[in-house]
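Data deposition worksheet. Section B asks for the primary sequence of the deposited chain exactly as it was used as input, without tags or linkers unless they were present during the calculation. Section C holds the resulting structure in token form. Section D is free text for depositor observations; keep each observation to a single sentence. Incomplete worksheets are returned to the depositor.
Section A, Depositor: J.P.
Section B:
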Amino acid sequence: MEFVELDRVSLRYGGAEDGTLALNSASLGVKQGEFLAVVGPSGCGKSTILKAIAGLWPVTAGRVTVGGGQVKGPLSCVGMALQNPTSLPWRTTLANVMLPLEIVEPHRSRLRRDRQQYEARARSLLGLVGLGGFEDRFPWQLSGGMQQRASICRALIHEPSLLMLDEPFGALDMFTREELWEALQDIWLARRPTVILVTHDIREAVYLADRVLVMSARPGRVIAECVVPFDRPRPMNITFEPQFGALVNELRSQIISARSEAA
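Section C:
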């Protein structure tokens, strides 16, 4: 049984017939503990899939289920990290990471009583991504890459069963991005959440994911699937291997074909 499932989902922004049809009978499944990446042309509905799964936007048709239950509103079992870290500038790194604990139950009710344990969890996450010693720094004292590391920790602090990442490294330079790929792989290997990554970077998708889905141009639907055959943990130099490059080129060709068909 799939942990996350979209069954012939259509989603039209605005709701009316003349609204923008972002998804058209899109179907996909994600197993528990799997790392899935979704790629496709710009505007194909990749981010819309995340909104539908998280319950942030109601679907027009079809069915979305997470953990066997139909999604009918925002889910507390989800952690999200976006392209921009959006840290609160008046809070320290540690306080920003712990912010979901003040909102999401049952952690909200336990936070005052168990603050010491929660702080230890936050410090452990920050250490895992190389931010040990930066707990008391404010966002303006951190680089963009460091802020994004903290953002991923914040998405994981309440131990969500589903982590959704929407272009989380898109605004970063190549070297910082690759460092964060390795950090994210380490987190996934240590904690094994179910992950759905939306990205324009095909190398990123192949390096991080167990499986890569390719979407058509808008209105989006899944048109191809690729299983990534490389063992974990994956060293960064694997991205220079011929088999890795061949897989990236195959996916790129599928995306180009999807864009051409739409045109």
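Section D:
The radius of gyration is 19 Å.
Residues 1-77+194-263 form a domain with the Rossmann fold fold (CATH 3.40.50.300).
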